[in-house]
Each structure stands twice: as C-alpha cells, then as structure tokens.
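Honest question from a wet-lab person: if I give you the sequences of every part of a complex, can you actually get the arrangement of the whole thing, not just the pieces? Trying it with mine:
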Amino acid sequence: MDMVEQENGIFPAVCPLDCPDTCGLLLHKKDGKIVKVEGNPEHPITQGAICNKVRNMAERIYHPERVLYPLKRSGPKGSGEFVRITWDEAIQEITERYSDLIEQYGPESILPYSFYGNMGVLSVDGMDRRFFNALGSSQLKQTICNSAGSVGWKHTMGFGGGTTPEGIVNADLIIVWGGNIISTNMHQVMLIEKARKSGAKVVVIDVHRNRTAQWADWFIPLYPGTDSALALGIMHILFRERLVNESFMEQYTLGHEELREHVKSYNPERVSRITGIPVEDIEQLAMMYGQAKTSYIQIGNGLQHHDNGGMNVRSIACLPALTGAWLQDGGGATKSNSGYQSMNSDKLERPDLRLNSDTRTINMNQIGEALAMQEQPIKALFVYCSNPVVVAPDSKRVQAGFAREDLYTVVHDLFLTDTARYADLVLPAASSFESTDLFGSYWHQYIQLQEPVISPLGESKSNVQLFSLLGRAMGMDEEAFSQSEESMIEEALNYPSNPYLNGVTLEALQTQRFVKLDMTPQQFYLEQLSTPSGKIELYSNALEQAGLPPMPEYVPLKEGYDGERRPTREDNYPLMFISPPNHNFLNSTFSNVAKLQKMEQQEPVLQIHPQDAEALGISDGEHVEAFNDRGSYELKASVTDKMLPGTVISQGLWWDKDGRTRRANVLTPDRLADMGEGATFFSATVQVRRK
Ligand SMILES: Nc1nc2c(c(=O)[nH]1)N[C@H]1C(S)=C(S)[C@@H](COP(=O)(O)OP(=O)(O)OC[C@H]3O[C@@H](n4cnc5c(=O)[nH]c(N)nc54)[C@H](O)[C@@H]3O)O[C@H]1N2
Ligand SMILES: Nc1nc2c(c(=O)[nH]1)N[C@H]1C(S)=C(S)[C@@H](COP(=O)(O)OP(=O)(O)OC[C@H]3O[C@@H](n4cnc5c(=O)[nH]c(N)nc54)[C@H](O)[C@@H]3O)O[C@H]1N2
Ligand code: SF4
Ligand SMILES: [Mo]
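Yes, you can. This is the full assembly:
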C-alpha cells in the first residue's frame, strides 16, 4: 500500500523550500491528515533538527485560505474577487487565449515567471520548461537570487561549488560574511558549533548585528557594499606580512604578482575610511586569517544584492587562494554548492522542443519595466512558484504592470498571494507533500526523493500534472508530456557529464532515502578548475574583456554611501535601506501564517540607529514612513544600535494587508548588478519620517 492510502503512520519527506539545508523530514499522519512535521534523524547532515517555520508546515498545508479550486476573476485586478470554475473551463480558457495570442502576436508575447517556491526539479526545471519550450514563449532570466555572486565566484574559481559541509568541523577560523546563517542555514551553524568546541573562532562581517552576529565571537560591522575594499585590505596585509602561501599561488593561481602590486593601494587606513572599520580591527582580522591553519569563509547572499555584488563575491573568493586554505580539509570558501548536483537538463527541460532558437529573454528583476514595454508587448504571464508582486524590486512598477487590463495573467499557487490577486485565472497548486519530486541541495551533497504522503487537497494539481495537462490540451503530442515522474527522475539522474552523480539512481533513492553524491572527483578540485586558464583567476581576462576590472577592486555603489562619501544636505535620501530575509518567513512564504506573523511582531519593523532616530525625532515603537522616489510604506520603528548610523534595516518580505502596503520592494531599485544581471535590492537609499 502506498503512503497516500495509509491513514496513519510516519512517512519520510523532504523540505521543498528554497533553503540550502534541504532537510529530511518525517510527516506524522493521523486519519489521513498530516498532524505533525519533524526532522528525520537519519538524514546525515540535518540529523532531525528543523526550523520552526517548517515545524508549522501543517498549518500552511491546511490553511483555511488555501486555494482548492480553479478561480476566475470577477472583480477589478487586484481586488481579490474570484468565482470558482472547473478545471475543464480553466484549461479551455488558457488554450483559447494562448492560441489567439500566438496567432496575433506570436508565442513570445507569452512569458513564464517562476522561481524556486518549490525546489523539486520536476516542478521548476522539468515539465514546466518542456511546456514553455514547446510553446515557444519568451524566456525568463532567473537572476533574482544569487546570479551576481555566482558569476563573481565563477570568474575566480570556475566551477559553481566550494567547500562541502562535513569538513567545516575541522576549521579553526570561520568567517560568515554577509549571511545570516542562524536563520537561513541552521545546520551549518550546528557544524560550526562542533568546530567551536575544538577551539574555532567565529567572525561575522555584516551591515547588521543579526542573529548570527550575536552568536559569533566577533562581529565586524561595515558600510553596505564596501566588502571588496575590506577583502583587498586583508590581501594588502597578507602580502605585507608574508602570510601568503607562495608555492600555492605559484601552482594554482593566475595573476598573483599583478595582485601583489595592485593591493598596495588598499592600505588599512584607506580601507578603514571606506568601510568604517577601525584600522586595528582590519589588522587583527587579517592576522587571524593569515595565521589560521584551516580558515573557512561562508559567503552569504546579502553582500551580492548590490550594484557591486559580483565583485564583492569575487574579491572574497580570492582570499583562500592567497593563503592556500583550500589545501586543508574544511578550508576554503563556499558561495553555493549547486554545481556538484547539476542534472541532465536537456532531458528534463527538453530545449529541443523549442523551434524558435533565438527567443527573447526577459530579466525577472526588471519585470516591471518589461510589462511596460510598448514594442512587442508581453500580453500574457504565467506565474508559478514565485510571488513577484512582493519579491521583485521596484514593486510599484511591478504592480502597475500586473494591473494592466490587456495582460492575461494565470497564477498557479497554493494561496491568493499579492500576485495571484492580479490574476485573471488562479489555479490551485498541490503542495510538495502531495507530489512526486526529486530534490538536490545547493549546500550539502545528499539527493532525496519525495513521494506523495497525502492526496492533493481539493482539486489542486502539482506543477508536473498541470503542465503535462496543459501541454496535451495545446496539442503537444510528444511523449514528453505523458512521461511519468519516475521516468523523468531516471532521465534527470542519467548524466555522465556530471561525475558527482555516479551511483545516484531512482532505485537507490527509493531504498536509501538519502543518497550521497560520489564526491571522489572533489579530491581533484584544484586540478580541474573550469576557469579559462584552469587556475584560480586573481587576474581575469574574461572580466577585462567584459569591460570590468580584471582584478578585485572596490567600486562604490551607484546608489548609496560609504565611509568616504557620507550623505550631505543635498542628499534627499540619506539612509541606506537593507531588506534581508527574516527568521520566520521563507522569502514571502509563511507571511500569511498567523503564528509566524506573531513571532515577527505582526508587521514590518524598521531598525534605525539612535543617532538617526534622534535627528529625525523618531522614538522607539512609533510608526514611521520610509520613502524615496520609487515609493513609500509604513513600518514600526525599532531604535537600536545594531547597525552603523546611516543604515536602516527591515527584515522579511510581507504581503500587503487591508489595503496597506507592506512591501519592502516598493523602495528597492531594479538596476542590475555588475555581473550576472543580478538583483541590487540592497543598494537603495531612503528617507524616514514620523507617520
Ligand atoms: N529564515 C529564512 N531562511 C531563508 C530565507 C528566508 O527568507 N528566511 N531565504 C532563503 C534564500 S532564497 C536565500 S537566497 C538565503 C539567503 O541567506 P543568506 O545567505 O544568509 O543571505 P541574506 O539573508 O539574504 O543576507 C544576509 C545578510 O547580508 C547582510 N548584508 C546586506 N548588505 C550587505 C553588505 O553590503 N555587506 C555585508 N557584509 N553584509 C550585507 C544583511 O544585513 C543580512 O544580515 O536564505 C534562504 N533561507
Ligand atoms: N527586498 C528583498 N527582496 C527579495 C529578497 C530580499 O532579501 N530582499 N530576496 C530575493 C531572493 S534571494 C529570492 S530567492 C526571491 C524569492 O522569491 P520567490 O521565489 O517568489 O519566493 P516566495 O515569495 O517564497 O514565493 C514562492 C511562491 O511559490 C508558491 N509555491 C510553493 N510551492 C509551489 C508549487 O509546488 N507550485 C506552485 N505553482 N507554486 C508553489 C508559494 O506558495 C509562494 O507563493 O526573493 C527575492 N526578493
Ligand atoms: S526551511 Fe530550511 S531549515 Fe527549515 S526545514 Fe526547510 S530546509 Fe530545513
Ligand atoms: Mo534566494
């Protein structure tokens, strides 16, 4: 008997959320319903510990506001007024509208908009892609999360993977740089705690004394977007003090002699002026780093959501190449480990089904602008696994785009999100616990399988079910649209180009649950770097050709301040506005769960330094408005010295409520970062006033 049919029991599951930990879960089922979610103690990395968010997952699955039937809009866009229709009516409507649009404007008038609301590869890099490939729609550049940093990393290291988790316990110095891992990667904290018991020191470098900084041994605050300058200052001292590993640099790097000259101008005094960090602290940090036996740097996502985000990551990624930390088990750095688990995307996504090979691509960070395009306008949007009205920058423009009367929008989600409220048609999505899917992790090296534990609630359908149904309804008669999930998984894992996947099979997943990648090739990590030179590129010709500095460099933010350029009276928006994730939501997911809202003080909070609060006449707990030319919204002030003066912080991506805007992204820019066309959420300036 399969899991769905069993009324009672404890069943294995995978956390589907966009979180590096990809925990193994156990779902307790009673009378056919999930009543409890806990960690699976047998998962080698996550070991039975899970976050509070997912412990409350049942509340989300059975939330009274979950969308259970197809809905058709009956009021103005954004009003949230819908009537129930049948699946047959919904599918018929989509196929008719799409056929008309294709005839009149061509298939590129249709744009999918998706991200990783469910990390299952069949859901977001599988049947969905097949459908849009066969349709010939415009393509989305998925740049909203880490693309600036990934490209910065790749220009230095080549391959999209770094230090793997298990070794971290051996490190004696751990630097968490621009990340808030207590909230965003809790199992890394568990491993670091082990290292700490053996004497390791933990340093956090951030613009905010976040939860992770409070837990660290040493917190170093700096001005936003100045991380490259700090990394270059550390390099300056490492060369000066001969704390570099000459033979390592000789063997494994390109451009160390040029770099040695280059960093002479980044003396500690200059770096201190830019970053706001005292000279003594820069000296001490560099000495600690240079003298550590096994140093490890966790490069967070926060510091790459900036105009200079690619370079920030690149500069930091150069540090272990100077000391040779890569030679130690657990040494080095990680930005993302997604490279180890790449799957057979040709088989999964079937790009061969696309007939128009030069289809236009639209950057998801600029969806507001894209929806305002007059020429070759986007006439239809299909949103799934994402909530762009809340998560995309310059949100008022995004909202205006979604409000266009002539735009035909379909949203597939579990809830009537702020985005779904603008849809013409809302389709009910099954949760991952109601579906079959395959999960990797962008941090650890275990692959997992999800099999359905309960039946889809109401009339909801998984992404795979939906897109295969739609494909067939649109006359796509290829076998690709009737393939079973199991067969898709087999094809995804059959990928000799990625040797790490050796031995990972559907059968192994069914019997063992957690199947580790074959990490043998990692032993040759330094010998097989996929940069153009095959070495760690301290000097990058590719960057030079792209018109960017070939060596790590501090480039000030386009919108923002540093220690050398503080705001003046002429600056209307003198505060830097940073809006990173909070502890209890996952991006905007869970922002509608009452228990978790309560743990986040029920509403958006603006942390403001006492000096700034005093100058603006703001007291703790009162309501304020944060604003700039892009928009404004109301928050509750929390006066605190967790940042340097001049920086304000609001954590968490909130949905609007009762007509009140609660979206941080009304203030953020849709400019693209220096690399990877990435998002620049945190290079935003604002002013704040009493409400
Ligand atoms: N609880 C929870 N967990 C999550 C998420 C969530 O929303 N909630 N989101 C998931 C996703 S999609 C991602 S990408 C990861 C992200 O998780 P992390 O890698 O931890 O990155 P962020 O939380 O985005 O940002 C971390 C820190 O960057 C800091 N920061 C901002 N600008 C700068 C700067 O210029 N320099 C430095 N040094 N620091 C800066 C912010 O203050 C913040 O403390 O977390 C995942 N896990
Ligand atoms: N200001 C600011 N903005 C940010 C960030 C920030 O730090 N600050 N972080 C950015 C980052 S790093 C990221 S990754 C993005 C994340 O942005 P998104 O990927 O849009 O994340 P969510 O807001 O969690 O939205 C995911 C949606 O997918 C839905 N969903 C879940 N499972 C399924 C499924 O199986 N099928 C379908 N069809 N839908 C499903 C959920 O209900 C939810 O509404 O946000 C970015 N935006
Ligand atoms: S959100 Fe992250 S920490 Fe929480 S259960 Fe999921 S994978 Fe684990
Ligand atoms: Mo992300």
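Two things worth pointing out. The longest helix spans residues 87-105. The longest strand covers residues 631-639.
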